[in-house]
Design goal:
This protein is an alpha/beta fold and about 425 residues long. The termini are close together. It binds iron/sulfur cluster. The site of iron/sulfur cluster has 14 residues, from helix 13 and helix 15.
């Protein structure tokens, strides 16, 4: 898998003159310059940084898209010193961006965590790396050792929660940090900060923190030189599927999806584009001129999610691929909400029938009813993502569906999947 930048978008994945960056501290400082973070509370520094962050319009890059500065605001108002948590769990099987970012520039992520800790008065930072991502954990440990030798900084620990789809969800991760049990919690008011041992938690995705480290160095105006006024900056995207050059790319927000797909060289005519991840949505290639940014994607029924783009060729079957995702997602339920525990496997059953040409239009109607019954009924958004994906498949692959429900499945339904799924017991450490 390649890791590269597109056009002038060289920020997070900036390279040295001789190619890919050495993730060492000296190379990092040579590329990005020093970072001055006060050891003790410094109001002037905090106000200046706060202003730039708010002006930058940076939103979380972990899927929620929440404004980063608003998150800090809620925690600061609690009046207690928070725990800063770096979320590098990357539970989406089709995502490799956190892994690429840590391999490429771990110090940028750690710089961002230091900035957030200094801003919020936190005395401790925890980095969460899934227990099957040994190489990422090693890179972080090495980077921390280098920083310790250089002096300064707050205590940082690396913890290894279980590699499950839902473990990266904020409340599940906090539950694991508190009780060792990674189950999402029902949150009625998401503006109330989560807590670990009575400390409010400031939890950010690794990419969000790397963006923070750049904004502190270069300012909000620089950050906004890329992207759109509503969606400023660049973002990391993992592109895979029926393409000749899959990889992790840094792209300018607002880039047309069609342009993004063309750059990775599809292997054939495109039948659908999966955006956002396995809880995302299929996009009809006829609508691929849409800008890759939260607002335009939402208007097209899609989502940025965690920056995943999977290209499906016409030689594959969109119904069969959606059935595979639904089955995988059903298996990743945290097992505590009925609509998720029972609804997702039933939806996967229906999709498998339809993919095999053994489901008539009544099965489609039943599947639609199941979507209605499951939507919004879980403690977390895991089942909602599956519903969104299934509904988009029923629309984008409607022509295929008509043929399937007539008892004539396309030849693509038996083709090997182009999707990525974790192999039970296998480490993802070296997979890139
Ligand atoms: S909705 Fe599903 S994944 Fe989320 S908490 Fe409930 S059972 Fe777990």
């Amino acid at each position: 898998m390649t890791t590269a930048t597109l056009d002038r978008t060289e920020r997070l994945l900036r390279t040295g003159p001789d190619g890919p960056a050495d993730p060492g501290l000296s190379t990092h400082l040579a590329l990005h310059g020093p970072l001055a973070v006060p050891r003790r509370d410094d109001r002037d520094w905090s106000h200046a940084v706060w202003r730039e962050m708010a002006a930058s319009g940076l939103t979380g890059r972990g899927g929620g898209g929440f404004p980063a500065a608003a998150k800090w605001d809620a925690v600061t108002r609690s009046g207690r010193r928070p725990l800063v948590v770096v979320n590098a769990m990357e539970g989406e099987p089709a995502s490799a961006k956190d892994r690429a970012l840590l391999a490429w520039s771990p110090h940028l992520v750690l710089d961002g965590a230091e900035v957030v800790a200094a801003l919020s008065g936190a005395r401790e930072i925890v980095v969460c790396v899934a227990d099957d991502r040994d190489s990422s954990a090693r890179v972080v440990e090495r980077a921390l050792a280098e920083r310790a030798r250089a002096g300064g900084g707050r205590p940082v620990s690396v913890v290894r929660p279980p590699a499950r789809y839902v473990t990266g969800e904020e409340s599940a991760l906090v539950s694991w940090l508190t009780r060792g049990d990674a189950r999402p919690a029902l949150r009625v008011d998401k503006s109330v900060p989560l807590q670990v041992r009575r400390r409010p938690v400031l939890l950010h995705n690794a990419e969000t923190l790397a963006q923070v480290a750049l904004i502190v160095r270069h300012g909000a105006a620089w950050f906004r030189e890329l992207g759109t006024s509503e969606a400023p900056g660049s973002t990391l995207v993992t592109v895979s599927g029926a393409v000749r050059t899959p990889g992790v790319f840094e792209v300018e927000l607002g880039t047309p999806v069609a342009e993004l797909v063309a750059r990775v060289d599809p292997t054939g005519p495109v039948a659908g584009i999966l955006l956002g991840g396995y809880g995302g949505a299929w996009l009809d290639p006829a609508h691929a001129s849409v800008a890759y940014a939260p607002g335009p994607l939402a208007a097209a029924g899609a989502t940025l999610g965690v920056g995943i783009v999977v290209v499906l060729a016409t030689s594959s079957c969109g119904i069969a691929e959606t059935a595979r995702i639904a089955r995988y997602m059903a298996g990743e339920s945290a097992g505590q909400c009925g609509p998720c525990v029972f609804g997702l496997p039933a939806m996967a059953d229906d999709l498998e029938l339809l993919a095999a040409g053994r489901g008539d239009p009544a099965v489609v109607g039943r599947l639609e009813q199941r979507c209605d019954a499951v939507m919004g009924r879980g403690a977390c958004r895991h089942p909602d993502g599956v519903v969104r994906l299934v509904r988009s498949a029923l629309t984008v692959f409607a022509d295929d569906l008509r043929v399937h429900t007539a008892g004539h499945p396309c030849t693509g339904h038996a083709a090997p999947t182009v999707l990525r799924f974790p192999v039970a017991g296998a480490s993802r450490a070296g997979a890139a």
